[in-house]
Amino acid sequence: MTAQVTMKSADILILGAGPAGLTAGLYASRAGKKTIVLAGRSASRLDIGYQIENYPGFPSIDSRELLAKFRAHAEQFGAEIYPGDAIDLNLEGDLKFVATKDAVLEAKAVIIASGKSLPKERMIPGEEEFLGSGVSYCATCDGPLYRGQPVAAVGNSAEAAQEVLHLADMAGRVHWVQGDSGAAKVPEADLAVLAAKGVHFLPRTKVKAILGGKRVEKVELFGGAGEETIDVKGCFIFREIPAGPLLARAGLALDHKQCLAVDSRLRTNLPGVFAAGDATCGGMQVVSAAGEGCLAALQALHYLRTKE
Ligand SMILES: Cc1cc2nc3c(=O)[nH]c(=O)nc-3n(C[C@H](O)[C@H](O)[C@H](O)COP(=O)(O)OP(=O)(O)OC[C@H]3O[C@@H](n4cnc5c(N)ncnc54)[C@H](O)[C@@H]3O)c2cc1C
User: Fold this and answer.
1) Which of 212, 210, 190, 209 is CA-nearest to residue 201?
2) Which of 79, 166, 178, 206 is the most exposed place for a label (fewest CB within 10 A)?
């Protein structure tokens, strides 16, 4: 069965629906540009839920309430908030393309407001090296490439279980590495289906390293019953997608902290691509993220005018 892919186009595409992305969305849509704000699965830092006492005009406000206000305000001017994680970026041409697992979005300008990237220490050794050469974050996109071949799957959320179900239908033997807590959040019914499909459950086990030559060949495991190495052709990772490697692979310049390198006008090294908020490691505050979102949108609008 071929998965349905949605095609969408915009003048300005914004990656991330936190204060930076939603402020950029508000400015871009209010200026009359077709604007899409891609909202990834990993929450905005505001979604954690804390009391903010330093956002001007609001002496004390719950962060989720403020996020809802940002969102409603952007939508009021016509910004479309579209769900999905960017998993592939092609940003070098005049037209930019961003793929999620079920959509391809095209735009004339892009603003990256994807927040602070998962730090390198929380990535699996080998994850970045083999991204695109055996490491994948999407079973529906890349599962068919591993038909009949052994793969490892990493993650323990209910969503990870759904991805493992896809893999079990496409790949060969699936070794499901479930991390410290096992598949605590997975419904019993899904677990039963996975067991019936011959998935190899590895509870309380983690991946120590992803190994190989040009492509993934093995994963080294620890925990559970000790250490072992298993031969696999692919390693699917189902948790927050670290933006850093994705952005670097797209040709964007990053600094040593995985922050996007930008100039004073929030331009990245790629024409027509701007960045705002924690993604640039600017102020690391809501107000600075919103401020950068505004500036990035104004710069993207200016860029579009020079192209007309
Ligand atoms: C516990 C805590 C307390 C804090 N307290 C304060 C405070 O009191 N005052 C203050 O000003 N700041 C505070 N901050 C910091 C503040 O929350 C952040 O600086 C701010 O949220 C950054 O906004 P942002 O839009 O850059 O990124 P975020 O709010 O992190 O939003 C990032 C967005 O990008 C999306 N995304 C990520 N990857 C992808 C992808 N691959 N594809 C598509 N979308 C993607 C995410 O889903 C999310 O929507 C706090 C942060 C924390 C964690």
Assistant:
1) 190
2) 206
Q: Is 117 in the pocket of ligand 1 (CB under 6 A)?
A: no
Ligand 1 in reach of 50 Cβ (< 6 A): yes
For the domain 120-237, what is the CATH code? 3.50.50.60
Question: Ligand 1 centroid to 259 CA: how many Å?
Answer: 14
pLDDT digits (tens, 9 = 90+) for 257-273: 779 999 999 999 999 99
- Is the distance from the beta carbon of residue 275 to the nearest atom of ligand 1 less than 6 Å? no
Which of 114, 123, 252 maximizes ligand 1 atoms within 8 Å of its Cβ, making it the mutation to test the pocket? 114
Residues of the chain where predicted confidence (pLDDT) is lower than 70: 1-3, 181-185
Q: What is the 117 CA–ligand 1 centroid distance (Å)?
A: 10
Q: Could you say which of 2.60.120.560, 3.50.50.60, 1.10.1040.10, 3.30.1330.10 is the CATH number of the domain covering 6-118+242-307?
A: 3.50.50.60
Residue 96 to residue 105: CA distance in whole angstroms: 8
Plot region of 73 (φ>0 → left; ψ -120 to 50 → alpha; else → beta):
alpha
